[in-house]
């Protein structure tokens, strides 16, 4: 999948936020590049930032970081959310094209579903950089920058298996199926857990990255498996939902829960012992890289790096290092 992943074989209406604002200094020439020129100009014009769901702390950090970084470089910004809906995403891409933006930073709504939307922007000569999730075609986006989900799932599953003493029944909360990250993490978990035959899966539910759905699906799983001993979740929001269900059932002290993302609520849950571990996705670092590369494309015509697909390793967060995390930034 990605050249930096040492586990590549594991495979890896619109909510418009009125956040448009004038950019700050640091943009070089006062004359902006021609909109959609895709290279050879100076920093300037507007970057359209399309995230997924800013009510989720992970995507809020992504959007806030992108906006701040773009404005530091001298751009105006618009921020919107596709809510993981391809049709909403298409509408947002069309709006960006009509607005003649200089570039688009996109967290795509599905690997296959987003190819046509990216193609539409490329046809309009607007450079696109993808963040957090990839699409199933190369050569369209100027860059695809994601967390090393296979590596992250591996280190998380190893820590969780150790906490389980390598035995017992467990259930899985799976993310949104159209998001390639959901399957990559699930496969990464499975590759580790399959090494321990005394760990037995007794249920799996799709909870679409959502805390409320995570709680509801965990309640259902508990009704069928009241003595379950572990939970592996594809992200922190689903894991936190599972923790809520376990608390209500007065079973939290009997069940080991694993999360993924490193949001602050999850880090606090790790500190308190409610969660065994979470896997920090370096979304702030990745988003800074993405905006930097999009700026480079707008100004020079290329990202300045050799690879379109780029993965950044994740960090395992346990009680021992949880104090080093602040809003998705690890300082250890």
From TrEMBL:
The keyword Signal applies. Its main location: other. Residues 1-23 form the signal peptide. It is found in: Cell envelope. Residues 47-299 form the Periplasmic binding protein domain. The keyword Ribonucleoprotein does not apply. Pfam families: Peripla_BP_4. CDD domains: PBP1_TmRBP-like. Keywords: Signal. InterPro entries: Peripla_BP_I, SBP_2_dom. Belongs to the bacterial solute-binding protein 2 family. This is D-ribose ABC transporter substrate-binding protein. It comes from Microlunatus ginsengisoli.
